[in-house]
Amino acid sequence: MSRSDGKIIAVIGSGLIGRSWAMVFVSGGYSVKIYDNQPGQSAKAITEIRKQLAELEEAHMLRGTLTASQQLALLSSYDDLAAALQGAFFIQECVFEQLEVKQSIFQDVERLVGPDVVLSSSTSCLVPSNVFSRVQNQSRCLVSHPVNPPYYVRLVELVPHPETAMTVMNATHALMTEVGQAPVLLKKEIDGFAVNRVQAAIIAESWRLVQDGFISVKDIDLVMSEGLGMRYAFIGPMETIHLNAPEGLEDYMRRYGEGFTRLLHSFGPVPDFCGAGAKSVAEEMYELIPNQEAQLEARRQRRDQLLRSLARLKKEQQ
Ligand SMILES: NC(=O)c1ccc[n+]([C@@H]2O[C@H](COP(=O)([O-])OP(=O)(O)OC[C@H]3O[C@@H](n4cnc5c(N)ncnc54)[C@H](O)[C@@H]3O)[C@@H](O)[C@H]2O)c1
Ligand SMILES: *[C@@H]1O[C@H](CO)[C@@H](O)[C@H](O)[C@H]1NC(C)=O
Ligand SMILES: *[C@@H]1O[C@H](CO)[C@@H](O)[C@H](O)[C@H]1NC(C)=O
User: Fold this and answer.
1) Using one digit for the tens of pLDDT, what is the confidence trace for 86-97?
2) To 5 degrees, how large is the angle CA 179–CA 165–CA 106?
3) What distance in angstroms lies between residue 48's CA and the mean position of ligand 2's atoms?
């Protein structure tokens, strides 16, 4: 008997991320009850998941030890919130990224669940102290921020509310690990968490180098995909610097720290992402990949195919 046997997780909101979470949790053997406030939407999500599970099984990419039909049997859909929450020990919220919508759904959820149920939000951009401001017992609340698509990109940022109990962080860390995700713990909340802060730094400097005429859109993308990204898929920036000097991290900073400081001081203000100057960056991108639905969709499929292959490779390395 595994830890997940008979245990129920409720997923609230059955869009892109809600469906992905449902697939991740059933792969770990949990029963998942999906709720959406658009009537019929959660049932539609299960139809979509059935298709995806069959394709994954066919491609030998299904996660977990259960078959696609066993995983499907763990899913159920609800148009009624109270019925969906019944029996759940963990709630993963995946509704629209609007503060008011999230605050109000958590207010409703808290009235309907017992005191030990964990309330977890998928929010990308809202901090826990705002999302959970209308919850009475904030010690059981946290953000579990996934990266899209969570089925192949395993990282989940766990971000505490100032009141969140350490036991709740630990239990969620254990749950995420058990279902095959790669959780990281933020010690306290900050706008953007870790992922979007690092991402913003990379995007801003890439944008600046293009906009200021130093490099093309095509070539800045190659800097990442053929250069830095090669090792970042396996080791992060801290290990990278630790390995890149004979005596490790402090030696690295003795050698290169002054250079980095000089570069960082030359970064300048936040680039203009939307004004007149942005037009030429966009046009250069559209020359490479037109902003037409068909072309964008083809590139998205290529991206997901490549991520699947990389996920397989990383699994073999474990
Ligand atoms: N899409 C991403 O790349 C991504 C990545 C990480 C985190 N997130 C976060 O996940 C959350 C969901 O994003 P998504 O891309 O799945 O959005 P989405 O628009 O695809 O899905 C949202 C779903 O929530 C439902 N919904 C809205 N209000 C509701 C309510 N009050 N009660 C129940 N259901 C409700 C909608 O009907 C819809 O089905 C957001 O907070 C988003 O920031 C998204
Ligand atoms: C608040 O939540 C914690 C963590 O889930 C729980 O242990 C505690 O019993 C709850 N307190 C109240 C008053 O409901
Ligand atoms: C949480 O986990 C950490 C690391 O595993 C451990 O040191 C700590 O005692 C745990 N705290 C609680 C309250 O469970």
Assistant:
1) 999 999 999 999
2) 75
3) 36
